[in-house]
Design goal:
By secondary structure, the chain is of the alpha/beta class. The protein is built from 13 helices and eleven strands. Strands 1-2-9-6-5-3-4 form a seven-stranded mixed sheet, with helices on both faces. A two-stranded antiparallel ribbon has the order 7-8. It is globular, with a radius of gyration of 20 Å.
C-alpha cells in the first residue's frame, strides 16, 4: 500500500492507495479521525453503490461512525447537473446532516465531481472523502479538489476548488472494471506521461503489448501512484489553476467540445481526451513546437491501448467545435489557451486566435 500526501496553502490530506483496502486496518486507521462519532453519507451512482457501498459501510462502522446513509443517482454524465445536487441537498436535510457530517463520493469522475460540489456548497461546506472506483478517477479527478457540474452550454462551467479530507483508492475494484473503462483511465495516464514522465510513457508502450486485461496489477499500482504524485506536485504549486496547473488540461479543451457536441453519449471522457490529445499534438507539430515523430508516437500508443484518435460527428463542423471551445473556462480576452506538447515529457501553454490552424488540427482528426 502507498500513502501520498497532497499539500496546498490551506490544506493537507492523504491518498491511501492499495489492493483490498476496504475493511483493512489501514483504511480504518485513515478514516477514524474523520468519521468517529460523525454522521456519514455515501453518495454515488446506482452501479457503484450496488457494488461497493456495503464494504465501505462496514469500513465506516469499524471506524466508529455514528451512522451511515446512502444516496444514489443514475450513472453517466447526464447526472452531473444541478438537479442531482439539489436532490442531495434535500436528502442531507432530511437526514439531519449538520456541518460536522462527512460525505463520501463513491464512484468514477461523475460522482466525484458532483458529490464533491454538493459537499463544497451544502451549509457552505462539509467534509468529504473521495472513494474513486474507476481508473480515470484514481489517476486524475479524485485528486486536487476540482469539483463541479455541467451546463447544457458546456462541461464543468459551474464548480469550486474544494479539497477532500482523504482519498481512499482500493485497487481491487479495478478487477470488476469493464475494459472500456480501463481504457478511459489509460488516456489520462498517457496524458500525464506526455506532460511530465518519459519513463512512464515507455512503461505504457511496453505494457500495451500484453493487452489491457493482462496488464500487471503491480504495474497499475505504480502508474496510478506516479500520476497522483505528479498531480500532487502541481496542485501544491498552483491549487486554483491560476498558472501552472492549467497544463493538466492537455487535450481537454478539444475533448470537452467533442463531448458537448456528442451530447455526452458518443464518446466517453477518456476517449474524448485521447482524440483531443491527438488534435493538440498535431497543432503543436504544425506550429513547430515539437517534431512530427511525437504526434505519431502518441497516436500509436493510444491506438495500441484501444483508444480512438479520430472522431465522427457528422452533425457538427470544425467551426462548431471551435465555437464550443471558446466557452471554455480557460479562455482569456477572447484567446484560447491550449496545452501543447514540446515532446514526450514536456508541454507549454500557449494562447491562440489562429482559427485556420485550429481548423486544420480538428479536421485532420474530425473527418479523417
Amino acid at each position: 500500500m502507498k500513502w501520498i500526501t497532497v499539500e496546498t496553502a490551506g490544506t493537507k490530506y492523504g491518498i491511501r492507495l492499495g489492493a483490498e483496502l476496504f475493511g483493512s486496518p489501514e483504511a480504518v486507521e485513515a478514516l477514524t479521525p474523520f468519521v468517529s462519532s460523525k454522521r456519514c453519507m455515501i453518495a454515488g451512482d446506482d452501479n457503484t453503490l450496488e457494488l461497493y457501498s456495503e464494504p465501505l459501510e462496514q469500513t465506516l462502522e469499524a471506524s466508529g461512525t455514528a451512522g451511515t446513509t446512502t444516496y444514489s443517482f443514475p450513472p453517466g454524465e447526464q447526472s452531473k447537473k444541478m438537479a442531482t445536487v439539489e436532490k442531495l441537498y434535500h436528502e442531507a436535510i432530511r437526514q439531519d446532516m449538520g456541518r460536522d457530517a462527512v460525505v463520501f463520493a463513491l464512484g468514477g469522475g461523475v460522482p466525484g465531481d458532483t458529490v464533491g460540489f454538493f459537499a463544497a456548497t451544502y451549509l457552505r461546506g462539509i467534509p468529504f472523502v473521495q472513494v474513486p472506483t474507476s481508473l480515470l478517477a484514481m489517476v486524475d479527478s479524485s485528486v486536487g479538489g476540482k469539483v463541479g457540474i455541467d451546463l447544457p452550454e458546456g462541461k464543468n462551467l459551474v464548480g469550486a476548488f474544494y479539497q477532500p479530507h482523504l482519498v481512499l483508492a482500493d485497487l481491487s475494484v479495478l478487477q470488476t472494471l469493464p475494459e472500456a473503462e480501463r481504457r478511459c483511465g489509460l488516456a489520462e495516464i498517457v496524458k500525464t506521461a506526455v506532460l511530465f514522465d518519459p519513463d512512464l510513457f515507455h512503461v505504457l508502450e511496453k505494457e500495451a503489448d500484453r493487452g489491457i486485461p493482462s496488464m500487471n496489477p503491480d504495474v497499475y499500482e505504480d502508474m496510478i501512484a506516479r500520476c497522483c504524485e505528479w498531480k500532487a506536485s502541481i496542485v501544491r504549486e498552483d491549487e486554483k489553476e491560476s498558472g501552472k496547473r492549467a497544463i493538466l488540461n492537455y487535450g481537454h479543451t478539444f475533448a470537452h467540445a467533442i463531448e458537448v457536441l456528442s451530447g455526452y453519449s458518443t464518446y466517453s471522457h477518456g476517449e474524448a481526451v485521447a482524440i483531443g490529445m491527438t488534435m493538440a499534438a498535431d497543432f503543436a507539430a504544425d506550429a513547430g513546437l515539437c517534431d512530427a515523430e511525437m504526434p505519431a508516437r502518441q497516436e500509436e500508443l493510444l491506438e495500441r491501448l484501444g483508444l480512438p484518435t479520430r472522431c465522427e460527428l457528422p452533425q457538427a463542423s470544425s467551426q462548431e467545435v471551435i465555437n464550443v471551445m471558446y466557452r471554455d473556462k480557460k479562455v482569456r480576452s477572447s484567446r484560447l489557451r491550449l496545452v501543447l506538447p514540446t515532446g514526450v515529457g514536456g508541454a507549454i501553454i500557449r494562447e491562440t486566435t489562429d482559427h485556420e490552424a485550429l481548423r486544420k488540427a480538428i479536421e485532420g482528426r474530425f473527418f479523417g
